[in-house]
Write a structure and sequence with these properties.
The complex is a heterodimer.
Chain A: H1 6-23, H2 29-53, E1 62-70, E2 75-81, H3 83-102, H4 109-128, H5 132-141, H6 143-153, H7 158-186, H8 188-191, H9 198-204, H10 209-226, H11 235-242, H12 245-268, H13 272-277, H14 279-298, H15 303-324, H16 327-358, H17 369-372, H18 374-388, H19 394-406, H20 411-436, H21 442-445, H22 452-470, H23 473-493
Chain B: H1 13-16, H2 20-35, H3 44-71, E1 78-87, E2 90-98, H4 100-123, H5 130-149, H6 153-171, H7 178-209, H8 214-222, H9 228-245, H10 254-257, H11 263-271, H12 275-284, H13 286-292, H14 304-320, H15 326-346, H16 350-378, H17 385-388, H18 397-411, H19 417-431, H20 435-460, H21 466-472, H22 478-494, H23 518-533, H24 546-551, H25 567-592, H26 602-605, H27 607-617, H28 622-660, H29 662-673, H30 679-695, H31 703-725
Antiparallel strand pairs in B: 1-2
The chains are: A mainly alpha, B mainly alpha.
């Protein structure tokens, strides 16, 4: 009996949904919505089932499926998930139906939903591909729907932002394509035949140091743009500010994670020697991004732009954790990818709601909202605190693990990065104070309280924020084996000595 | 979450279930938030009930701990943890770890919180956010209790941050007014600056000891023989956190501003929670500081903790002299007393310093609540001593009496509680060969008495002014009425406690019919009584050492024996206290009294004194330095420059390439449009110009084309790379 090809279905179902939505006539708007909803919910269900069936304490790729695609070039349809990607897959699966059902694009639902579903397929595919070429295809597919989503449903300056987004990413991708082709060709000597298979190349190939470094950079540039790593981040604030709320949520929630995920899977895993060699550069850029993003966020006058810059800072933490190369730091980084997706996604939704009510995102025009909409303010507070990284909410665990874990291998970078923790409190609370405190003026007096439907949209986010914050153990248990395996791979293929894990704690704590 | 350990089970029910102490108020917080508004008393009943339950368990815990200490030779901390999360072999647990220090603070926090909540039912009655107030207050206590119980650094940070957050909510309780909201932000940020140290310090501890467990850290630090510089680094980093939280110099500036919060908040914040957290952290991880900062090493007369503590004692006491706001006098007094505690820890006087936390909590809480009582009933919600107070002693006997007892305790008058703790610190500084800090302690004692005499005189003696005159019924002409209104308006502008109708709601006690209602006066009397007697738990003159007996196992490191108490040694400080009282009283009578005195207006006439006065009024210009220089430069030039760089240089490169190559781009574009040029070949050469040109909004929409060009370029690039490397 053939096993149910769950990973393939995770990609195919949204594609089918997208095509169906595109084919259904505009005259049946409800049918369009239902189709989109059903396919996205189906995908979400499958991703959750995947998580349930995922074996804990197993470092290998699970649910792997491999089918030959273009045999002559060694390209295959090779999918699999491990601890590093599983939660990104689930996040993707869960985020899309929420966006699709909860955020109204205001016009042209059919095309919007069609692009949305295609986007989901692309993102999903990127996280589960284990073939370089396949990964590239998915990585690129993502651009197209995102470009149209920003360009078609965004705000005033959307065309500029969309084009900027597209070109930045595209230039990065061009480098990656160079890298992919070259990697496959150069690895032929070690594999005996041309193959684009990630695992085969990573295990067998032995690039000369300089070659490996060139190839690594070809990949890394694409990911650095996507993350975005300082100083390649300038497309992000524009894209975020101009994108429709749904687009922003997806962009911050999962799209940026393709960059950080790529750095781990196609950077550190594929070229361990080069990644170790490039550590100082990436650590520095990560820390620079943390500080830069925070400082730039401090002086934003546009609420959405502020959140966008905060993303730059948060993503810096993830990259810091990745290149600190300790189990704790990388695990923390992976958790931070998921947690940032949840909390920043929720922040964008809230900012979108403010815009819908007031038709402005200018901080100076908003005042005293806590008085007229206390529940809205309370929800905003929880989400903001999670973004600040307050213990007990989801933002803390990942950030804390990155900081604590990086201390052994990247001490001074960590000391500087810690200022980012303070600054996060600075810009977010300051913004909160300006927007929610004070006496509301005439324009803000009529600010509507959180509606029932909006509350239902935010509820899952709040639930995840609290749950992941209070009980991160299940996540760590699933992520860490794969991270350990990755680090083992790194120390085998480079002269980097992964520091020994902390000695065991006497778990009862007391001496008595 | 499985139980990881059960060491506590054998020691008694309360010790094993001490984790309930913070959990009950934490649960109560949610109950109040969700159901409080529907309850007859707006949720305050849940808060008080929760704090009472915590108090009962904390008392039981204290009882059982004392019993344990009495029955065994060497009582170890009783721990109980469950694993919160694991990172490889590093287990992070949450749970409880009871030892003498934790036991003492648990009781203290639960006790003070209960009284403050009872007090608040009257004080914030009718407030627009009554329910929220009680919710935040309850969570705040839960945060402190969580921290006190912490068996490891992670839980400690958890409680620490919850408190920081609640302080933001509570200080900014009346956020409609800008000043309040900004004071809340200031508090949060300043403490947050210190938090950086907490995170870094925790990181270093993990790197050093491979562990975040407090017992382990302490044991290993006590017998440390590794990289001393790294341990010192950890100690300094952690101490920075304590500076922020405990309002030590130079990060003390947030504390007086925090007076913008309602008075019960101030009293809670300043007695047993929040600001004590920093001192607690030093006491909790004392071996780390003791070893890391070379405390009690022969020949070392200074160390970071003692220096910062000593400076804080003096500068804060100096500032207390020029305040007109009674709460600000008390706030600076707290800062100064926290300086004493830090200084005590810095000179190796662990026990006296921790004992000072204990005694200070009662009398400082009482003083704040007295100030609140005066404002609530006597001065029409104004805290301005010069404008709206004076002559209140007869009308408000309970408030006056408890104030006097607490003031005596604070000043260190013999046989009041503060005497036994503060004098021990000063004595130990001398005994442990820290002569400078001995002198600092003495000067501090003198200053404390002097400024408290001034505050007492202005509030309770002399002629009633403004709001107080109105209350006492002494106003002889209408100018007072006006003055009062003015004062009230001013208070409004400053956003003090002025948000409830100036009518006293509750029922006063029958023997003090004009004093505040019983919800206010009963807590005052309880605290006043404790301010009198709490010191007798560790009264060296009477050879009582109960406190020492219960707590000494928490030190974790060898410290010098406390010097034997002799009345002769106490003479200098007693004399200075008396002198402080006498001098201050004389000056107050002269300056604020009825008669004409040459001292009146001296600061206006004498340039030198005037300058000194101005220097103090401007708080040594530290706020100016922080706000005008540092924050403004970050908030304005630096971030503006950063953003400018962002927009013009980083982004400008992209846009610039576009603008520069726009013409070429347009030309090429035209050609491609007309299909005359082979896109792929030409494209690889002009990719850059296209990339830029396309950024001009006019030319967008041809993205697919650019994409094709880029991939053409990529193909060529890949070919080159393969050729070069093969």
């Amino acid at each position: 009996m053939i096993e149910f090809p769950i990973l393939t279905m995770l990609v195919l179902v949204p594609v089918i949904g997208s095509v169906l939505v595109a084919l259904i006539s505009k005259r049946y708007p409800d049918l369009v919505k239902v189709t989109a909803l059903v396919t996205s919910v189906l995908t979400a269900g499958m991703s959750i089932w995947l998580l349930a069936a995922f074996k804990t304490n197993n470092a290998d790729f699970q649910f792997a499926s491999q089918h030959e695609w273009i045999k002559a070039w060694g390209i295959s349809w090779h999918l699999g998930v491990d601890g590093i990607s599983i939660f990104l897959v689930v996040l993707t699966g869960v985020l899309f139906p929420l966006v699709i059902v909860g955020i109204d694009p205001h016009h042209d639902h059919k095309r919007y939903l069609s692009w949305m579903l295609l986007l989901e397929a692309g993102v999903m595919g990127s996280f589960i591909s284990l073939d370089l070429f396949l990964f590239f295809v998915f990585f690129e597919i993502v651009l197209v729907p995102m470009y149209f989503l920003i360009g078609g449903w965004g705000y005033d300056n959307r065309v500029y932002a969309a084009t900027k987004f597209f070109l930045f990413t595209m230039i990065g991708s061009a480098f990656m394509l160079v890298g992919i082709i070259a990697t496959a060709v150069l690895a032929k000597a070690d594999n005996g035949h041309v193959t684009f298979d990630l695992i085969k190349i990573a295990e067998n190939a032995s690039f000369a140091a300089s070659t490996g470094r060139w190839l690594f950079f070809a990949f890394a540039i694409a990911f650095a743009v996507k993350v975005p790593l300082f100083p390649l981040h300038t497309w992000l604030p524009d894209a975020h500010t101009q994108a429709p709320t749904g687009g922003s949520v997806i962009l911050a929630g999962v799209l940026l994670k393709m960059g950080t995920y790529g750095l781990l899977r196609f950077g550190v895993f594929l070229f361990p020697e080069a990644a170790v060699w490039a550590r100082p550069l990436f650590l520095t850029l990560a820390v620079a991004g943390i500080i830069w993003g925070a400082i730039a966020a401090t002086m934003q006058t546009d609420l959405k732009r502020l959140v966008a810059y905060s993303s730059v800072a948060h993503l810096g933490f993830i990259v810091l954790g990745t290149f600190a190369l300790t189990a704790t730091a990388i695990t923390g980084g992976v958790m931070q990818m998921v947690n940032h997706g949840i909390s920043t996604g929720a922040l964008f939704i809230l900012v979108g709601m403010i815009y819908d009510r007031r038709h402005t995102r200018e901080i100076s025009k908003l005042r005293g909202l806590q008085k007229v909409a206390p529940i809205f303010a309370a929800v905003f507070t929880v989400v903001m605190l999670s973004s600040i990284g307050v213990p007990g909410l989801n933002g803390f665990v990942g950030e804390f693990m990155v900081l604590i874990g990086s201390f052994g291998t990247a001490r001074w970078w960590v000391v500087v990065a810690t200022t980012g923790v303070i600054l996060a409190a600075l810009y977010l609370l300051w913004a909160y104070q300006r927007v929610f405190h004070g006496e509301p003026d005439e324009d803000n007096k009529s600010f509507a309280e959180l509606k029932w439907k909006e509350g239902m949209l935010l509820l899952p986010f709040i639930g995840l924020i609290v749950f992941c914050g209070l009980y991160p153990k299940p996540m760590i248990d699933r992520i860490q084996p794969s991270v350990d395996k990755l680090l083992q791979h790194v120390s085998q293929h480079s002269d980097f000595k992964v520091p020994a894990p902390a000695e065991p704690v006497i778990s009862n704590g007391g001496e008595g | 979450m499985l139980l990881a350990s059960e060491t506590a089970a054998a020691s008694g029910w309360f010790l094993a279930h001490a984790w309930l102490i913070p959990v009950i108020p934490a649960v109560a917080f949610f109950l109040i938030i969700f159901f409080g508004k529907r309850l007859p008393r707006g949720g305050s009943e849940i808060g008080i009930a929760a704090m009472l339950a915590s108090l009962v368990i904390a008392s039981g815990t204290a009882y059982q701990w004392i019993h344990l200490v009495g029955s065994t030779e060497h009582a170890d901390a009783v721990s109980k943890t469950v694993t919160w999360f694991e990172i490889g072999s590093l287990k992070v647990g949450i749970g409880s770890r009871i030892d003498g220090l934790a036991m003492m603070l648990l009781f203290l926090v639960a006790f003070i919180s209960t009284l403050v909540q009872i007090y608040s039912t009257e004080y914030v009655r009718g407030d627009r956010r009554y329910t929220h107030f009680f919710a935040s207050l309850t969570l705040f206590s839960a945060g402190m209790l969580t921290m006190v119980l912490a068996p490891n650094m992670v839980q400690l940070i958890l409680g620490w941050e919850i408190m920081g957050l609640c302080s933001f909510m509570l200080i900014g309780h009346w956020w409609e007014e800008r000043a309040n909201s900004e004071a809340a932000l200031k508090a949060f940020w300043t403490v947050r600056v210190g938090d950086m140290g907490l995170l870094v310090g925790t990181g270093v501890l993990l790197a050093l000891f491979g562990n975040l467990d407090i017992s382990e850290i302490n044991t290993k630090a006590a017998e440390f023989s590794g990289n001393h510089a790294l341990l010192a680094f950890a100690a300094v980093a952690l101490f920075i956190a304590c500076i922020g939280k405990s309002g030590q110099f130079p990060l003390h500036t947030w504390l007086p501003d925090a007076m913008a919060g309602p008075t019960p908040v101030s009293s809670l914040l300043h007695s047993s929670t929040m600001v004590v957290a920093g001192v607690f952290l030093v006491a909790r991880l004392y071996p780390v500081f003791h070893t890391g900062l070379d405390i009690n090493i022969v020949g070392h007369h200074f160390n970071l903790i003692a220096i910062i503590g000593g400076i804080t004692v003096l500068i804060a006491a100096g500032l207390a002299f020029v305040q007109n706001d009674i709460k600000k006098v008390l706030a600076y007094s707290t800062v100064s007393q926290l300086g004493y505690m830090m200084m005590g820890l810095g000179v190796g006087a662990w026990m006296p310093a921790v004992f000072h936390i204990f005694t200070h909590a009662f009398f400082k809480c009482c003083l704040f609540l007295c100030a609140g009582s005066v404002a609530h009933t006597g001065s029409h919600h104004s805290f301005d001593m010069k404008k709206d107070m004076g002559g209140l002693r007869k009308k408000m006997p309970i408030t006056f009496g408890t104030w006097m007892i607490s003031t005596a305790a604070l000043c260190g008058v013999p046989f009041f509680s503060g005497f036994f703790s503060k004098d021990e610190i000063i004595d130990s500084a001398k005994g442990n060969d820290y002569k400078v800090f001995f002198v600092v302690g003495l000067i501090g004692a003198f200053m404390t008495t002097a400024y408290m005499t001034r505050a007492t005189y202005l509030t309770f003696f002399g002629k009633a002014r403004g709001g107080a005159a109105h209350f006492v019924g002494e106003h002889e002409d209408h100018s007072h009425e006006e003055a009062h209104d003015e004062g009230h308006d001013k208070a409004d502008a400053h956003g003090h406690d002025d948000h409830h109708a100036p009518v006293v709601h509750g029922k006063p006690l029958s023997f003090a019919p004009d004093d505040s209602p019983w919800q206010i006066t009963v807590p005052l009397m309880i605290l006043g009584a404790l301010a009198l007697v709490a010191g007798y738990l560790n009264a060296a003159p009477f050879k009582i050492e109960k406190f020492h007996e219960w707590l000494h196992s928490s030190i974790g490191v060898e410290v010098p024996e406390a010097p034997k108490f002799e009345w002769l040694n106490a003479v200098p400080s007693i004399l200075l206290v008396a002198a402080g009282f006498a001098v201050s009283l004389l000056i107050c009578k002269a300056v604020f009294g009825e008669g004409n005195s040459p001292l009146k207006g001296l600061t206006q006439r004498n340039a030198l004194l005037g300058a000194g006065h101005k220097f103090l009024v401007n708080k040594y210009y530290l706020d100016t330095l922080y706000e005008k220089v540092i924050v403004r430069s970050i908030a304005h030039p630096i971030s503006a420059a950063a953003y400018w760089t962002n927009q013009h240089i980083l982004d400008g490169i992209v846009n610039g390439v576009g603008k520069g190559g726009k013409k070429t781009g347009e030309l090429v574009y035209k050609y491609i449009d007309q299909g005359l040029v082979d896109g792929v070949v030409n494209g690889s050469g002009t990719t850059a110009t296209h990339a830029g040109g396309a950024l001009q909004p006019v030319q967008s929409g041809k993205v697919n084309l650019y994409g094709a060009l880029l991939f053409g370029a990529a193909a060529v690039g890949a070919l080159v790379l393969v050729l070069v490397n093969s």
